[in-house]
Fold this protein.
Amino acid sequence: NKRIAPDEKIEAFELDYDGKRDRWNGYDPATYARVIDRYEARDEARRKYQKEQQLKKLEEKNNNPEKGEGDDSDGDDDDDEDALKVDEAKVDESEQMDFAKVEKRVRTTGGGSTGTVRNLRIREDTAKYLLNLD
């Protein structure tokens, strides 16, 4: 207990008006390079995982006796890319299915909104608080 000192290092800065309000004061670009490296590593791991999943699907498909397609080992990269594109197309189609629904207009007078209306009133109806007046 002989050398007791605070852990913080106190620095005195002599900054002018603009220096105090500089949002990039103390910014180190090397830290951003680390962030970029981390995201690139994550994306690479994601691509590797997706490729492994696609290979598993292809192996299951090839090992399935019902299909009877045989082994397609040449050009696996092209097959993987095609499978990814097909999966993306399926997702796009499923998202577009929601927009393809044609719903009847419900209680609209001049075009108004479409969709399901539960307890909403249109402008011409009397308000609920005016109904039970004696």
Observations:
- The two ends are 85 Å apart (CA to CA).
- Helices lie at 17-20, 29-63, 76-99.
- Residues 30-64 form one domain.
